[in-house]
UniProtKB/TrEMBL annotation:
One annotated GO molecular function: catalytic activity, acting on RNA
Name recorded for this polypeptide: Pseudouridine synthase
Region described as Disordered: 188-224
Organism (species): Hymenobacter arizonensis (Siccationidurans arizonensis)
Pfam families, sorted: PseudoU_synth_2 (PF00849)
Amino acid sequence: MRYILLNKPYEVLTQFTDEHGRATLKDFVPVPGIYPVGRLDFDSEGLLLLTDDKALQHRLSDPKFKVPKTYWAQVEGTVSEEALDKLRRGVKIKEGLTAPARAEVLPEPAELWERSTPIRFRASIPTSWLAITISQGMNRQVRKMCAAVGLPCLRLIRVTIDEMDLGELAPGQWRELTLEESRKLKAKFSATKNPANRKVAVKGSKESPAAPPAKGSTNPRRSV
């Protein structure tokens, strides 16, 4: 089984083929037989997990597991405490009411890579950065949440999936999880940890706690 972390660049499709000739994952990860876990929008950037482990792929995508994902969002305007409070309580978007999110004002990230297409700034409107953690998967959810509280999203970068992070991966670079990282990931999201299974567990039985997946290496092996 293979488990790969990719820093997906801006304007790359989260798939391996495109009839319109747009950039896809195949342009960056020349590994056959792997598939992305979930999606990352064409105009979003950042962490993507790819694997040929179909069982793990299904479990990580299952909303019952509430896998947390953290995004850095560059937004138009100044972030107020009222806006943060709304994000933390849940906001109404087209798909429904979002679950409470973790939301904090973020200093402008240091040494962040330049986007291939620069952000279009308006001189009269300041921009701010937010760190937002959600565990849902509604369509373009973070962008819609920001818009709902009056903070249009200019740039969106996913920086963590559960405890896996970008580490030092630059856009278009990838690395495989170490054997220890993949072992811990599979242990944490094994079938026996399915919330549905816990409901029918035999009374008196014990489960050993799952080990959390390790963070991304600070000195990852890369392929461009």
